[in-house]
Amino acid sequence: MNSCFLYHAWGLYTHECTCEEYKGNRIILHVQTKERVRCCLSCGSSSIVKNGYCLRDFVGLPIGGKRVTIRMKAQRYKCKECDFYQQEKIPFATGSCSYTHRFAKYVVDLLRGMTLQDVSNHLGVSWDTVKEIHSSYLKRHYSPPSLDGVENIGIDEFAVRKGHVYKTIVVDLDTGRVIYVGAGKGTDALAGFWRKVRRKNLKIKHVATDLSAAFIASVMENCPDAIHVFDHFHVVKLMNEKLDDIRRKVYSMEKDTNKRKVLKGTRYLLLGNGADIFDKQHRTRLENALAMNEPLSKAYYLKEQLRQI
Question: 53 near 76, Cβ under 8 Å?
């Protein structure tokens, strides 16, 4: 097989193909290194001799819809000076991985628009192999994240494994980068992050969180001088809960049957965004409910003003 084709297709620039096999939907390329090892890695002596070989299979880039296996004859050597055993380097794969660099890059490219299982089915490799490639790529490019220049952060929690396991993340609000992930959702989940902040001597200016008591306590203890900004959604949610309490009290205290009919069923109209109510009938019903009760009206308009902040 042409050496240029081996290089451009699979990145085998120092190897030659001795033969090819075709088994079902798979192409097997038998390759070996063109040049032998010249010196001992331990002592540098040139007195090394061949000491057998092993066959290693690697998943290569598919071609023509067929899977490709690269079967390499990896030569072993022994140094006659220091009795050191070594095996020739394999430049197109890393360590004990069973796939080539080109294949790993192809998997990462596919994962930009496909799930792990889709890529596994498409390439005919195990889900674990695809996950290993993806994890290795993420670790090389995104770990550990730098905290240099971080001033404004957001803290939140999310559930994994159907809510049985929780993680806490810290995000750099200026760049959108996830800069820390902690196990759990309590104050302990952020202990590692605050240690990094103190080690780097960072000056955090703003911290955005929800109304979690654990997050509030953690920020007050470790970052007391920062401006603590609470999540808009949770603040409005608290206001909506109070507004709903007022609505229920007003309805239970109202004796006039007609007024009770107007108040009944207005929960959605009161708690929703007033600017989104375009239906004339619903708008009229909301205005009637507000006009007949001053406490409810005040609470509603305070809620709308708070939403605009």
Answer: yes
d(CA 21, CA 72): 13
Share of the chain residues as helix, strand and coil, in percent rounded to the nearest 5: 40, 25, 30
Find the helix or strand (DSSP H, E) in which 67 lies: strand 66-79
Phi and psi dihedrals of 165, rounded to 5? -130, 135
Cα distances (angstroms) measured from residue 124 to each of 41, 93, 94, 95: 38, 19, 21, 22
17 dihedral zone (left: phi>0; alpha: psi -120 to 50; beta): beta
Architecture of domain 152-230: 2-Layer Sandwich (3.30)
Distance of CA 192 to the CA centre of its chain: 19
Residue 299 contacts residue 246 (beta carbons within 8 Å)? yes
What are the domain boundaries of the chain?
1-92, 93-143, 152-230, 233-307
pTM: 0.53
Query: Per the structure block, which two tokens stand in for 61?
Result: 């880039």
DSSP H or E segment with residue 4: helix 3-10
* Identity of the amino acid at 186: G
The 3-class SS string of 213-272 reads: HHHHHHHHHHCCCCEEEECHHHHHHHHHHHHHHHHHHHHHHCCCHHHHHHHCCCHHHHHC
* pLDDT tens series, the chain, 309 aa: 677 787 778 888 788 888 888 988 899 999 888 887 778 878 888 888 888 888 899 999 998 888 999 998 888 888 888 888 888 888 888 888 899 999 999 999 999 999 999 999 999 999 999 999 999 998 888 777 888 889 999 999 888 877 678 899 999 999 888 899 898 888 899 999 999 999 989 999 999 998 888 999 999 999 999 999 988 888 888 888 888 787 778 777 777 776 676 667 676 666 666 666 666 766 676 677 777 777 777 777 777 777 777
What gap in Å lies between CA 162 and CA 68, rounded to an integer?
A: 38
